[in-house]
Amino acid sequence: MFLEIHDLKKGFGQGESRVEVLKGISFEVERGEICVLLGPSGSGKSTLLNIIGGIDGADSGYVAIDGERTADMKEKVLTAYRRRHLGYVFQMYNLIPNLNVKENIEVGAYLSDKPLEIDDLLKTLGLYEHRHKLPNQLSGGQQQRTAIGRAIVKNPDILLCDEPTGALDYNTSKEILQLIEEVNQKYGNTVIMVTHNDAIKQMADRVIRLKVCRS
Ligand code: ADP
Ligand code: MG
Q1: Average pLDDT of span 108-115
Q2: From the CA of 42, how far away is ligand 2's center (Å)?
Q3: How far apart are CA 45 and CA 23, in angstroms?
Q4: Which whole number is the average pLDDT over 110-116?
Q5: Which whole-number Å values give the CA distances from 145 to 137, 139, 186, 203, 215, in the listed order?
Q6: How far is 195 from 149, CA to CA, in rounded Å?
Q7: Which residue has the least CA distance to atom 26 on ligand 1?
Q8: What per-residue confidence (pLDDT) applies to 198?
Q9: Using CA positions, which residue lies closest to atom 23 of ligand 1?
Q10: CA 201 to CA 97: how far, in whole Å?
Q11: What is this structure's pTM?
Q12: Would you list the DSSP string of 168-181?
């Protein structure tokens, strides 16, 4: 099994104000799959992505990648894991405003020792003709394509997407989800994605549902 989430628990706060967010969640993801996290706002979707991404720690349980638990990784190994093996795409594109499309994607390439060929990737993303434009000269969909390019150019084993279409209209969202599926098929990256767009139903290999926990 490539990615294993085992009995993961996570809460925030102390005493009266303590909230248990993840109450023992378990699932597995095979290499190359698209796994979708569904659940209402506050159900812990972002918390779960952050724990998988090694940005936050769990209270108990574990995340294992290729059999190795992220909590057992030494700081250096964890940093290398985050840098080389993970790509992150957020709702907000967080592009660097004074760098053009190609340069924004190159930023991601610097973090990898096996980056993808940039011109080829620009064509896959439908951005080749726009490669010299600055972010403020792009539509929202094109900005998100650029952000996906920056995450994927590292050729990460896992692409974590946190509501990547949250700021886009329905049809543009659908195009972005189709692009993520195309990238998944072309480069074989495992995708873990939070989205509410129902176009995802045809693409997902696995759907994990989270509930808001009252404790
Ligand atoms: P979702 O992404 O599903 O909307 P989140 O994972 O962002 O949910 O948050 C789940 C719950 O955990 C919310 O109640 C949120 O307020 C709380 N939470 C998340 N991160 C923190 C934090 N760093 N400190 C305190 N509470 C947090
Ligand atoms: Mg969230």
Answers
A1: 88
A2: 7
A3: 12
A4: 88
A5: 13, 10, 16, 18, 40
A6: 19
A7: 12
A8: 78
A9: 12
A10: 34
A11: 0.93
A12: S-HHHHHHHHHHHH
Whether the CB of 71 sits within 6 Å of ligand 1:
no
Lookup result for tokens 């329905």:
170
User: What percent of the chain shows pLDDT beyond 70?
Assistant: 99
**Does residue 21 line the site of ligand 1, with CB under 6 A?**
yes
Where is 29: in which H helix or E strand?
strand 19-29
Any alpha helices (H) in 54-169, and if so which ranges? Answer: 75-80, 101-109, 118-124, 140-152
Is 42 close to ligand 1, i.e. is its CB under 6 Å away? yes
Q: Do β-strands 68-69 and 60-65 pair in parallel, antiparallel, or remain unpaired?
A: antiparallel
Q: Please give the distance, rounded to the nearest whole angstrom, from the Cα atom of residue 123 to the centre of ligand 2.
A: 30
| Burial of 152: CB neighbours in 10 Å, binned 0-12, 13-18, 19+ | buried
pLDDT interval class at 214 (50, 70, 90)? low
Please give the Cα distance from 48 to 149 (Å, whole number): 23
Return the structure tokens found at 145.
Answer: 């394509």
Q: Give me the residues near ligand 2 (ion), CB cutoff below 5 Å.
A: 45-46
In angstroms and rounded to an integer, the radius of gyration of the C-alpha atoms of the chain is 17
Q: Atom 24 of ligand 1 has which residue's CA nearest to it?
A: 12
Strand 3-12 relative to strand 60-65, pairing: antiparallel
- State residue 197's pLDDT score: 82
